[in-house]
Amino acid sequence: MFLGKKFNISIIVVALFTFLAVPGAGDAQEKAVPANRAQVQFSYAPLVREAAPAVVNIYTTKTVNVRRFAPLFNDPFFQQFFGGQLNRTLPGQQKKVQNSLGSGVIISKDGTVVTNHHVIEGAEEIKVVLSDRREFEAKIVGSDDRTDIAVLKIDGDGRDFSFIELNNSDNLEVGDLVLAIGNPFGVGQTVTSGIVSALARTQVGVSDLGSFIQTDAAINPGNSGGALLGMDGKLVGINTAIFSKSGGSMGIGFAIPSNMVSTVVKSIQSGGRAVRPWFGASGQGVSAEIAKTVGLPNPQGVMITNIFSASPAERAGIKRGDIIMTISGHEIQTPQDLRFRIATLSPGGTVEVGVWRKGRKVSVNLKLELPPENPPRNETLLKGPNPVAGAVAANLSPALVDELGLPMHNVAGVIITKISRKSNADSFGFAPGDILKEINGQVISTVSDVVRVLAKNNRLWRITINRGGRELSMAIKS
Which CATH number do you get for residue 453? Predict the structure, then answer.
């Protein structure tokens, strides 16, 4: 949840940068408790001196509508809660330039900068300021709201930039020392230290593909997009959110693991947007009762309940009732773990999946493929004297479902992707994400069905939609 300045909220997105260095999996260093006083007397200064030039401040500007008589609704918390609808131009509003502050990390000498999607979302201008006060206009290479990662580019006019290497975040352990670098509250570059408090936190509420590093290193508003460093000076995460009731640090901060950062950056750099392999199956967490029934020693993994025809999961031989235990050797505890592990892999090649089946563990090879766009989305602006005129409808497919971050059971039908302001669809309360199920008794399967039904002149429209898993029906007179 985005930071609301005046309200107590649980999870606050804080614009912090974390960077992970990516050596090989076997490069994990030996760790030991200090054996004497001399070993305790150390300083982080050499690490900070090396990394600080690569951590940047990000300033953004955008034009928003401000309510002169109801400033309460200008708060980011309410803007997020109402899905941006409060930002429409209404009586009593005036336009205002809004400035925001976040952090970022340079991850290559050519000026590639990683930050949070929420730091630059909607920005009309983006300025990157280095620790030596040099300023650069930044261009957005690509941004992915599902992982809250954005990639920017600054031009050094032939000069190389200081940068931080990405590390292998899978080498992190609870108790490892980490440093957070960012610009909290706009006071200037600040370094805080702490430990890794927990790993694989999935119930943070920032993104549906998150499996976050939890740290007690102080993270505050303004740190979003900043660096989380390991003791080798490499990036292990991008700071993104905090748990807070006051708006400040309470010792629980969250960072996006560097392995996810690395995958998203490569995907955006190669195609302009993040793409992820399609698993093609979904399931539920394993309870203690289920574990006992199938002979598992511990309640862990994901029991498969739905498999989609001709999907990679089906072709790999995965069956309903199978329990996914590992992906490429990494343990799977929950459905969120499964989504995260698949999302950190790049399309192409195969991955080994450990499955619990009939009382024993077996391995299958899953081919890493892009979700198909079949049928083609056929995005169409709906027109005419009907309640959904002004909406853009598209055919659902595995590719569009993944792009929109919908549950994988929504792989067929017609979805509204956009709504024109002041249109009929807008006035009658339709919204992006609504799935059209039935119009005047006609079951809707494709965009062509919608166009054909809407071509008829009717005085009464009976429309059924699926909104967030709930079916809603309405009768509207034209």
Answer: 2.30.42.10
Q: Which of 103, 118, 197, 258 is catalytic?
A: 118
What is d(CA 283, CA 303) in angstroms, rounded to the nearest whole number? 5
Same domain, 290 and 262: no
Q: What's the pLDDT band for 29 if we cut at 50, 70, 90?
A: low
Give ∠ CA 84-101-133 in degrees, rounded to 5.
155
Catalytic residue check, 224: yes
> What pLDDT, in 10s, does the model give residues 33-54?
777 776 666 788 888 999 999 9
- Which of 367, 401, 418 is the last residue in one of the domains? 367
Which of 144, 148, 322, 449 is an active site residue? Answer: 148
Residues 216 and 266 reside in one and the same domain: yes
Residue type, 111: G
pLDDT score for 370? 92
- Contact of 115 with 103, CB cutoff 8 Å: yes
Domain count, the chain: 3
Q: What is the mean pLDDT of the chain?
A: 83
pLDDT of residue 3: 36
> Domain boundary residue among 367, 397, 423?
367
pLDDT grade for 64, boundaries at 50, 70 and 90? low
Q: pTM for this structure?
A: 0.76
- pLDDT tens-place string over residues 164-204: 999 999 999 999 999 999 888 777 788 998 999 988 877 66
Q: Which entry of 100, 224, 262, 267 is annotated as an active-site residue?
A: 224
pLDDT of amino acid 39: 65
